[in-house]
Write a structure and sequence with these properties.
single chain, alpha/beta, Rossmann fold, seven-stranded mixed sheet, 11 helices, globular
Amino acid sequence: MNPRILLVLISCALSIITGLVLSRGGSTMSSATRARPLIGLSMDTLKEERWQSDRDLFVNRATALGADVTVLSANSDDTRQLRDVESLITKKVDALVIIPHDGAAMAKAVDLAHQAGIPVLSYDRLITGCDLDLYMTFDNVKVGELQAHFLADRLPAGRKLRLIRIYGSKTDNNATLFKQGQDNVIKPLVDAGKIEVLHEDWAEDWKPENAKKIANAAITKLGQNFDAILASNDGTAGGAIQALIEEGLAGKIIVTGQDADLAACQRIVHGTQAMTIYKPIKNIANQAAEVAVKLAQRKPIIARDELDNGKAKVPSILLDIVAVTRDNMMETVVNDGFRKKEEVYEGIEQK
């Protein structure tokens, strides 16, 4: 019998929500023969502050649950990430968690893990084109919708809102989902003559310097004749804002973001960035660790959603998000303990 994952549809007696129960056959050395389950965490990068937080929270929670974690970071290199996965398979991990640099490129990694009887959780970025076991993420379409709604609520009177759009990395499926959510809101407003997109481009590998180049190109073409930059995350927002600073436009142009990076939160309270999307990293990291331990122990897991990755309907766990501005900074990222008040408001006298 093929050892790939067994998916069993179940019905909840008191709910119309359908769950998906997951389990997979064991690898050569499973948690049954190991004192502590071993989880492999293959990360795209640790260069961004957000991913360092994910790693630390994930490892701490998994360790508290009685598992060991081996972490490898590929520095945004697909070939290196595939080698990392092969190394983790060689170590006979009981479960594999992958944050892919390129969702399509990591399909081979999933296939290799399955050949070794190892279940795979795709973390926050979808691995496409394979029989993936489980996907955990935030509602990424909603991320884009919240960013776009923020702009839609600030349309200028009597004329179009003139917009620059900076997308994420083309290799990241999430970037496509963010754009999809943005389009859900922006396109009807473009069709209605309320928004005009004057310049748009994709920021390779989400790098701020690439976002800055896009913003510089837009400024060269448009001068100061635009109102907003719809940046898909805080890194690209930071790059765009650096271009605005050089032109004396910082604080005069609406700039969106995502991830609630410390630098972005500081920019928001200082007025150079308008908003960010807070995705409670503690929630996804802790829940992913809990799920990974269950996968390693071959325990059933219930996922109430599913997403199409181009080959299969992948059981998915979707987490909530919230838009953050200067007005609700304290009630969200600060009160949650995600950011320290003294760091966010450094140099600002609060009432």
